[in-house]
Design brief:
single chain; 73 residues; extended
């Protein structure tokens, strides 16, 4: 029987409400808590993301952040 995963690192992180809702839904659907779900996603990052989609979404997100900064954020 596999040993339970030991979570050894804590870090302060901020998330948008939409991101946290999505994380909670993913964790609930997967039968994990939020910390376990984040660990799973990052440990398996390459296999759970599509590189082209990721790059496109990341570019859009950076553009949105840049627009927010220029508006005085």
């Amino acid at each position: 029987m596999p040993r339970p995963q030991r979570l050894t690192r804590r870090f302060p992180a901020q998330m948008s409400e939409a991101a946290f809702r999505r994380l909670r839904k993913f964790a609930t659907d997967a039968g994990l808590d939020e910390s376990e779900a984040l660990s799973f996603l990052f440990e398996n990052f390459e296999s759970v993301t599509h590189e082209d989609n990721l790059n496109h979404r990341l570019r859009l997100h950076r553009e949105m952040l840049a627009r927010r900064e220029t508006k005085g954020g």
